[in-house]
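User: Sequence recovery, please. Input:
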C-alpha cells in the first residue's frame, strides 16, 4: 500500500512538474543553469522517467539501474564518479586515501610519521577536502554542531577557496 502511495505521489508530482515546465514563465536559460552540465529541470524530468521505468526495483539494484538509466539519457556528460575519478577528473576521496596509504606503506612509515605523511599526501591530492576537514575540526573545537556547524564549515571552505 505504501509503495502505491509513493507511485501515486510521484505521478502527481510528475504531472505538476510537466505542467509547470510547459508554462511560458518556466524557460531555463544556460545562464540560469550555472555550471551544471545538465540543467536541473532536465535532470529532474529524467530522474522521474527512470524511477517510473524501474519501480519494481529496490536497494542496490535500483541504485545501479538509476545510474545506468540517467547516464543513458545524457550520454555526452559524465554524471557520476567512476574509475576512481570524480566528474571533475579529481581522484575520489577513497582513491586518494588508498594511494596515500600505499605510498606510506612503501616508505615503511609508522606512528606519527605515517599519520603526518598520510595527511600531507591527502592534502596534496585533494586540497579542497582537506580544507573542509580542517574547517570542520576548527568549528567542532568551537563547540558548534548541527546547522551552525554546517554553515561554519561552508563559510570557512568558501573563504579558503578565495
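Assistant: Recovered sequence (162 residues):
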Amino acid at each position: 500500500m505504501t509503495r502505491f502511495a509513493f507511485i501515486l505521489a510521484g505521478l502527481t508530482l510528475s504531472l505538476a512538474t510537466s505542467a509547470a515546465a510547459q508554462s511560458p514563465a518556466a524557460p531555463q536559460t544556460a545562464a540560469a543553469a550555472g555550471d551544471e552540465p545538465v540543467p536541473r529541470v532536465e535532470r529532474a524530468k529524467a530522474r522521474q522517467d527512470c524511477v517510473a521505468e524501474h519501480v519494481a526495483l529496490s536497494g542496490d539494484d535500483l541504485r545501479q539501474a538509476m545510474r545506468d538509466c540517467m547516464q543513458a539519457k545524457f550520454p555526452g556528460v559524465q554524471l557520476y564518479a567512476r574509475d576512481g575519478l570524480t566528474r571533475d577528473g579529481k581522484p575520489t576521496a577513497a582513491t586518494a586515501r588508498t594511494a596515500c596509504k600505499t605510498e606510506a606503506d612503501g616508505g615503511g612509515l609508522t606512528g606519527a610519521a605515517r599519520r603526518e605523511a598520510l595527511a600531507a599526501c591527502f592534502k596534496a591530492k585533494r586540497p579542497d577536502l582537506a580544507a573542509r576537514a580542517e574547517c570542520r575540526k576548527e568549528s567542532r573545537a568551537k563547540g558548534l554542531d548541527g546547522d551552525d556547524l554546517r554553515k561554519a564549515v561552508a563559510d570557512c571552505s568558501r573563504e579558503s577557496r578565495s
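The first helix runs from residue 2 to 22.
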